[in-house]
Amino acid sequence: MDAISSLMLQEGWRKGPWTALEDRLLTEYVQQYGEGSWNSVAKLTGLRRSGKSCRLRWVNYLRPDLKRGKITPDEETVILQLHAMLGNRWSAIARCLPGRTDNEIKNYWRTHFKKARPSRRAREQLLHQYQLQQQEQRRQYLQSLHLLHQHQHQQQHLQLLQQQSQQLMMSQQQSPPEPDHQAAVMAMVSNDDQQGSPASTAEHCTLPVPDDDDALLWDSLWKLVDGDGCGDGSSGGEY
DNA sequence: AAATGCGACAACCGCGTTCCC
DNA sequence: TGGGAACGCGGTTGTCGCATT
Predict the structure, then answer these.
(1) Span CA (A182) to C1' (C19), Å
(2) Chain C: nucleotides under 7 Å from a protein CB?
(3) Which residue from A10, A104, A166, A200 puts its CA 20 to 30 A from A148's CA?
(4) What tens digit of pLDDT does each residue of A199-219 get?
């Protein structure tokens, strides 16, 4: 125990499991002042807990958006895939599983998978599975880009036709087509442009979406997998 | 029924990073 | 720009409940 911790205990700071009253005080504090400034919780609520402890309790247990209950098979698959890719970057993994905390995922991993380390073949399969997913994502993205270009091309063609008909009508002393329609179509295109981007559908997830340059990254990953199996497993430390 | 083992999860600790003065 | 405070992260430990012996 360090000097600060022992000093805090001497001054009556609590440690260990949280009581219902402490939870209520902390929840009320966050409702009133928002998240952050954890060190001021004790001053403002009378709670005898360190800011660090308060933050942890809120983030891992009291936050209203937390998902309760068991990890689902789908979530387990995501955890396995991301861990195969990212290693023990629990917070990064947690960001891709809304409602789950890094602590929860870390505990789950250690309980379920730490001892039974997946075989090298299994890990290769997981990586391969993820790679296929990314390829499919990229294919869909390129397809949507292609469709968008087609759409824009059609719009240009339409505009050209409209211009030509307009010129024709002007030459014939007639009124031009309604500009509202044209504006509406253009608005649709620009709207599609914003909504159609795959990147916008995964804002909460900070995983990199592979691009052409990611071949290098994957090369490195495969090398890691290959290199991993040559030793006795003692290099990892985690397992 | 008591002792023991073990899984699950909450909480703590140390350290690195970021922020602010 | 340097230093301290605050924050965030990953590793570790503690505790509880259930199953097994």
Answers:
(1) 72
(2) 5-12, 14-16
(3) A166
(4) 333 334 444 333 333 333 433
Nucleotide nearest to A56 (CA to C1'): B11
Cβ atoms of A40 and A52 within 8 Å: the answer is: no
CA atoms of A35 and A33, how far apart (whole Å): 7
pTM of the model: 0.57
Please report, in angstroms and rounded to a whole number, the separation of the first and last CA atoms in chain A: 27
Estimate in Å the CA A8 to C1' B17 gap, whole number: 24
Q: Would you say the C-beta of A18 is within 7 Å of strand B?
A: yes
Q: CA–C1' distance A209–B4 (Å)?
A: 50
Phi, psi (deg, nearest 5) at residue A163: -60, -45
Residues 6+ apart with CB under 8 A from A211: A138
Spatial separation of the C-alpha atoms in residues A48 and A19, rounded to whole Å: 12
CA-to-CA dists, residue A80 to A76, A128, A226, angstroms? 6, 12, 18
Nearest to A73 by CA among A97, A107, A89: A97
